[in-house]
Amino acid sequence: MTDTRHTKLLIIGSGPAGYTAAVYGSRAMLEPLLIQGIQPGGQLTITTEVENWPGEVEIQGPDLMIKMEAHARAVGTEIIADHINALDLSKRPFTASADSGTTYTCDALILATGAQARWLGLPSEEKFKGFGVSACATCDGFFYRGQEVVVVGGGNTAVEEALFLTNFASKVTLIHRRDSLRSEKILQDRLFKNPKVEILWNHAIEEVVGGDNPRGVEGVRARHVETGQITEVPCKGFFVAIGHAPASELVKDVLETHMGGYVVTKPDSTETSIPGVFAAGDLTDHKYRQAVTSAGMGCMAALEAERWLAEQEQG
Ligand code: FAD
Ligand code: NAP
């Protein structure tokens, strides 16, 4: 059965940007609806310690997101477990069609759909996804107790995933395509000191190797980026941690995007190329991609939506 619900302000996404927009939107009496999507709480729900959220020296990512959700509910946001599969931004009110069959219409829209894990794009990676290939150590690390694992990447995520995996695995090999990491120095320091970690510098993954019966990973083949020499690293788990791509699928043909799909917003603003549509968080941000900056943009989006709606009412 299909039904239609109208709201002044619709927020799509339940990461730090979406929940912060919800807190500000609710306190501005806009009675927002927030659609959570298939990852309620967003990316921080797949990590462990968060150590750079102001006011919390250390907090588990999922706990922080439970607090944000509770805060948004407490100030009056209606939070809906649903996923938007299509948007019509060609006329107002804007229309969002959801998997549940409900059609949401709204006067103003805040897009806070964040980002999703990037994959290497190898056929063998695809073949073993869910059978030893993962993009989430927090979710799958436990399965590799006492076994060898490989992590690919050189950013904060890769280093954090590698460190987290040392809690379970007998050995963690981090494979990076350059000779230096781009992660924060404090994390690098912890990585280099950990006796379970080995780093294979200047190597690119050629292939994930494994068996079919039962299907499972047995190792990876890595190629030296200069000499071409192949090294085989045995492992039961292969964790891809090479960054995230903006979740702009819904709007890529109607809103201006750049730098591989990030939604363009006006300078110092969350306004997009369509009046009344605002975008916040990792969806728009190729530079900082932090929880705190996403939350800041969520705040900006709600304040801008409030002003824009007031201007429309005044004619
Ligand atoms: P996201 O958190 O990506 O949330 C996007 C939301 O949109 C999700 O709820 C999803 O369900 C929803 N959504 C997407 N598409 C749809 C749709 N079609 N319909 C409905 N809903 C939809 N940052 C830090 O500051 N500190 C850290 O310690 C830290 N650790 C991290 C660890 C890992 C493993 C990762 C991956 C990231 C980490 N980050 C950290 C980065 C941080 O998580 C992000 O910057 C932040 O979560 C971005 O927030 P966001 O609200 O823009 O989007
Ligand atoms: P990132 O910073 O973009 O790093 C991606 C890493 O993967 C880079 O080292 C990159 O190599 C490598 N890479 C990219 N494509 C590759 C490919 N095809 N093959 C092999 N390697 C590839 O991504 P991230 O680490 O996921 O971090 C994303 C954002 O979230 C960042 O802003 C980060 O600060 C934030 N974050 C913060 C924390 C924290 O604060 N503790 C934790 C996690 C994430 P090059 O270095 O050669 O480009």
TrEMBL record:
Keyword set, alphabetical order: Disulfide bond, FAD, Flavoprotein, NADP, Oxidoreductase, Redox-active center
EC number: 1.8.1.9
Stored InterPro entries: FAD/NAD-bd_sf, FAD/NAD-binding_dom, Ferredoxin-NADP_redctase_2, Pyr_nucl-diS_OxRdtase_2_AS, Thioredox_Rdtase
Cofactor: FAD
Gene3D superfamilies: FAD/NAD(P)-binding domain
Signal peptide location: none
Domain FAD/NAD(P)-binding per the UniProt entry, residue ranges: 8-298
Keyword Oxidoreductase assigned: yes
Cofactor note: Binds 1 FAD per subunit.
SUPFAM superfamilies, A to Z: FAD/NAD(P)-binding domain
Sections of the chain in a coiled coil: none
Assembly and binders: Homodimer.
The protein's name in its UniProt record: Thioredoxin reductase
Organism from which the protein derives: Actibacterium naphthalenivorans
